[in-house]
Each structure stands twice: as structure tokens, then as C-alpha cells.
Write a structure and sequence with these properties.
The protein is mainly α. It has 6 helices and no strands. It has helices spanning 5-25, 35-42, 57-66, 72-76, 85-98, 103-112. The longest helix has 21 residues, at 5-25. It starts with a helix and ends with a helix.
Length: 115
């Protein structure tokens, strides 16, 4: 014996609402992801996260791809002269996750250029 139509309808509405909540909580990580939004969602207690630029992981990767220790901090932060290696490391770890590589690949690419 199946559910009554009213019960089935209520169940579908609750399920739909629950799925919408899950979609909001999950932020897909890819090259188009905004680094500031991603960082603040994952590290909400880090106040310096507010100083991060509204840019994508793709723009950060382009900077890294030029290599030779390019001034990554000017690409990450809105405020000139701002630098925080912990934030840089977290962003590099996220890039490594996007590329399914390890942190050292991203870090070496930044320091030494494309290889």
C-alpha cells in the first residue's frame, strides 16, 4: 500500500526544501570559484579573509603559472602590501585539490615557473 497523495506531496516538499538547504551549504570548488567567498566559508574565524580580493581561482592560477615567485599576494589581497602565507597556503591547497595534484606541484610552479 502506497502513501496517500497528501502525504506524498508533503514528503516531496520537505525533501525539496532539504535538498535546497544542502545546495546552499555545499560550495563547489573549481577554477571559477570566488576565492574570497570560498575562503570565508571555509575559514570564517579568520578576519583577514575580508581583505581577500573578489577573484577566481583561475586568476590565481594564471599568476602562479607565470612562476618565478610572482607577487601572488597582490593577486590575493585588495590592500597593497598585505601578505599572509597561511592564506596563500590554503589557496594553494585548494588549487591542488582542483587540479588533483599535491601542494608541492602548485608551490613549485609558483616559485620556478611552468615545467
Amino acid at each position: 500500500m502506497g502513501l496517500l497523495p497528501e502525504t506524498r506531496r508533503a514528503f516531496k516538499q520537505r525533501l525539496s526544501s532539504h535538498l535546497q538547504t544542502l545546495k546552499i551549504k555545499i560550495m563547489l570548488l573549481n577554477l571559477n570559484t570566488n576565492i574570497k567567498h570560498w575562503y570565508l566559508k571555509n575559514y570564517p574565524m579568520d578576519e583577514l579573509g575580508e581583505e581577500i580580493r573578489n577573484t577566481s581561482f583561475l586568476e590565481i592560477y594564471k599568476c602562479i603559472d607565470t612562476g618565478y615567485g610572482n607577487d601572488i599576494y597582490s593577486y590575493i589581497f585588495e590592500t597593497e602590501g598585505e601578505a599572509d602565507s597561511i592564506i596563500r597556503e590554503r589557496l594553494f591547497e585548494a588549487l591542488a585539490e582542483i587540479f588533483k595534484s599535491d601542494y608541492s606541484y602548485i608551490y613549485d610552479k609558483w616559485l620556478h615557473g611552468a615545467s
